[in-house]
Design brief:
Alpha-D-Glucose-1,6-Bisphosphate, Chain A, domain 4; ten-stranded antiparallel β-sheet; globular
């Protein structure tokens, strides 16, 4: 729990420092769906945080590729480390992404390698959840970033609108299972929302990290997003 509380303070500090130092070529507005965090009768959590991003059309065209999607994903993990002042770190292998408290042995969450899907309107990167201290059930759920183009901004010629949603779905938190849903809702869940909102706001700077993997060159190299999976609607 200490790690998650410190994460919240870290996000606030990082956001203030970033805002004071860097200009913002884009504009973001938090746009969470109604009931953005829910727990079903079986204890599975679904949490969606979203934002609308208005950015120069030329910048969007430059970024709209699988490599750009990889860079957004990498930026998310890097933001997590920076926001927690290095307390929480992400360790990479070819098949996993491990979110740990300082050291790999203190594994909070371990994800399988990301799965990508993209076309000319929508891009998705999804990490299936494998295990970790914060997980009550192994091999359940996923974390994903879903990016959708909304078209030109009618109020700003030369700009386009983008909807970015970060979703955790079918996640069984150990805190809720072993202690109580109330404790989970008022600790880990709240900090997750704060961290994710901080990440979404940071996208306005368009300062994306370089891809750590660089697996794809063109949209044709990845599957199309599934039609039946409409994700968090803008």
């Amino acid at each position: 729990m200490i790690a998650w509380v410190l994460a919240g303070f870290g996000v606030a500090i990082a956001a203030r420092v970033a805002a004071s130092r860097r200009p913002s070529p884009a504009h973001t507005v938090i746009d969470d769906p109604p009931q953005s965090t829910t727990i079903d009768d079986n204890g599975a959590v679904r949490s969606v945080q979203a934002a609308k991003l208005v950015l120069p059309a030329a910048e969007l065209e430059r970024l709209w590729s699988p490599e750009g999607l990889e860079r957004i994903a990498r930026t998310y993990w890097l933001f997590l480390t920076r926001a927690t002042l290095g307390l929480i770190r992400v360790y990479y292998t070819e098949t996993t992404r491990t979110v740990a408290l300082l050291f790999p042995a203190l594994r909070l969450l371990r994800f399988q390698a990301p799965e990508y899907a993209m076309d000319h309107r929508r891009g998705i990167v999804r990490w299936p959840i494998e295990d970790g201290i914060l997980v009550a059930r192994r091999g359940c759920g996923h974390l994903q970033i879903d990016v959708q183009r909304l078209g030109p901004d009618p109020e700003r010629p030369g700009y386009e609108r983008l909807h970015v949603a970060v979703e955790v779905a079918n996640f069984y938190p150990a805190v809720a299972h072993r202690l109580s849903r109330f404790i989970y809702t008022n600790t880990q869940s709240r900090i997750h929302v704060i961290v994710t909102h901080g990440f979404l706001r940071s996208l306005r700077r368009l300062d994306l990290a370089e891809s750590r993997v660089g697996r794809f060159a063109g949209i044709d190299e990845v599957p199309n997003p599934p039609i039946e999976d409409e994700g968090a609607q803008p």
